[in-house]
Amino acid sequence: METSTKTGFAYAEGGVTAPLGFLAAGVSAGIKKSGKRDVALVVAEATCPSAAVYTLNTMAAPPVRLTREHLASGVARAVVVNSGNANACTGPQGMVDARAMAEVTAEAIGCGVTEVAVASTGVIGSPMPMDLVLAGIIEAASVLDSTAGTDAAEAIMTTDTFLKEVAVTVDVDGLRYTVGGMTKGSGMIMPNMATMLAFVTTDAPLTSEACDRALRSAVDGTFNRVTVDSDTSTNDTCLLMASGAAGGGPIEVSDDRFSVVSAAIHAVCGELARMIVRDGEGATKFIEVTVRGAADDDDAREAAMSIANSPLFKTAIFGADANWGRVAMAVGKSSATVDPDALEVVFAGITTCENGTAVPFDEDAAATALAASEIEVVVDLHIGEGTATVWTCDLSYEYVRINGEYRS
Question: Does 286-404 carry CATH code 3.40.50.300?
């Protein structure tokens, strides 16, 4: 059943298998001590145009480096993912293990090794339990199904408290195209490309160039606008595959249909990005930070990210404290051009600062407003026309506990 989204598209069920031409699986291989699903496969019925973006962390894990190498061709047939072990900082053996994952996947589904993307997530620095991983891949390949997108979404989770998948449909020239996606991430989140892991599929006939353009645009406006704790993972990967199974001629960047499909991809990435923030480790509040009136959009983004990454700001929101001084500090330490006598700060609809100085407001009303689960903070620099919105969450006691016990 479909329902309207805020973006004007319609929701569809199935996540990455909602689009035609894709199969998926998620199985438990025993990598996680909990026994939960930990190996996922997403497979296109035929090799198709694809694109990916990756972490800017210079300690990029072997799966990231291998996928970069494989996806340079602009096509892919499958992505194999394991959770519970990041295969990061694992020395030369890490690349051997990543290649083995691609090789076993290729053999199991009948495609070229370079048509397989590899992703891993979990604890950094631990050797991969390859006997379990490879057995899991073989099992997953044997149960691939066009309705198993949710199983795959569950299998890529680590500290996530809920699975994250979404799909939307859009009608173009008499054809219905679907975009589906899944992601994981709740900690070590300040992507410099995407999130820890995200996979998007579509049955629109995008070319490789169109995939790349649409994905980069979507990532810049969604995944690159979220932060939980300012840490960029060693394993971040966001991948788009376009089966073209819904029909129609190839969609180039110059095609009128491109903007519609690209907007649907952006909508899916936006939904997934916001899910990550809502599931931030220990988070109790979803925070939208908008900076306007900046010298330009880049300045606005710098200021917004500085606010969103400030532990003092995030803890103030956790405590329902309208301490606008935390915002002023964060804006001032950013690279944005600022006029100290022009700053305006609005917490949850309540103006707390104008012309760079405090204005009277009802502290009790502000505390009540900031006790809500979703908070909007608006900052106006009153300098120019630049604007940017980013999403973050509060910083709670539970965040410290989760990360203090992460390896135990």
Answer: no
